[in-house]
Amino acid sequence: MAETQNRIIRRHSPAAGKDVNPMRLSISPRGLSLIQKFEGCRLKAYQDSIGLWTIGYGHTSGVSEGQTITQTQADAFLKADCANAENAVSRYDDRYHWNQNQFDALVSFTFNCGSRNLRTLLNNGQRTVSEISAKIPAYNKAGGKVLKGLVRRRAAEKELFDAPAGNEGCP
User: 18: helix, coil or strand?
Assistant: First the structure.
């Protein structure tokens, strides 16, 4: 019985296609606000800085020219896209044991840069937390050009990543 109590109970997540810890972190209101601030919300499709058709809060999957959505659809896309980013960051929780601030910063990073860039940032789990923090600002380019908006976003993500645990509710 003690053995059963000491095991981590796991559940299947259809979105991730893998077993995940039901006690895992999810993005906080602060993290969500960070994403919304930098993505903005557009209900009509537009081409981003590298020409990808985008809609809502930075949603790119299946978007086409002339497409429009409602705010409800934009919020649903945001929720689904955040879930994908959360799953990617959570894959490294056994190695890093993220605090809420680190998790939120990396979900924002992954939302914007993708899971491949997350894997590169973490060097597939081989970097230390301080090395990760130092590398975040380097991801400031789109189409090979440094963008002021990405410089600001990475600075905000690094600031959040470096904020001590327990400061999750502070701006």
Answer: strand
Per residue in 54-112, pLDDT tens?
999 999 999 999 999 999 999 999 999 999 999 999 999 999 999 999 999 999 999 99
- Name every residue whose Cβ is closer than 8 Å to that of residue 131 and which is 6 or more positions away in sequence: 123
Asked if 41 and 57 count as a contact pair (C-beta separation under 8 A), the reply is yes
C-beta separation of 9 from 22 below 8 A: yes
Q: Please give the DSSP secondary-structure letter assigned to residue 69.
A: -
- Catalytically active residues are 39
Burial of 98 (0-12, 13-18, 19+ CB in 10 A): buried
Tell me how far apart the alpha carbons of residues 57 and 75 are, in angstroms, rounded to a whole number: 8
Note the pLDDT tens digit of each residue in 15-25: 434 444 556 89
Q: What is the pTM of this model?
A: 0.83
Token pair recorded at residue 26: 């999810």
Residue 169's Cα: distance from chain center in Å? 18
The full DSSP string for 77-141 is HHHHHHHHHHHHHHTTHHHH---HHHHHHHHHHHHHH-HHHHHHHTTTTTS-HHHHHHHGGG--E
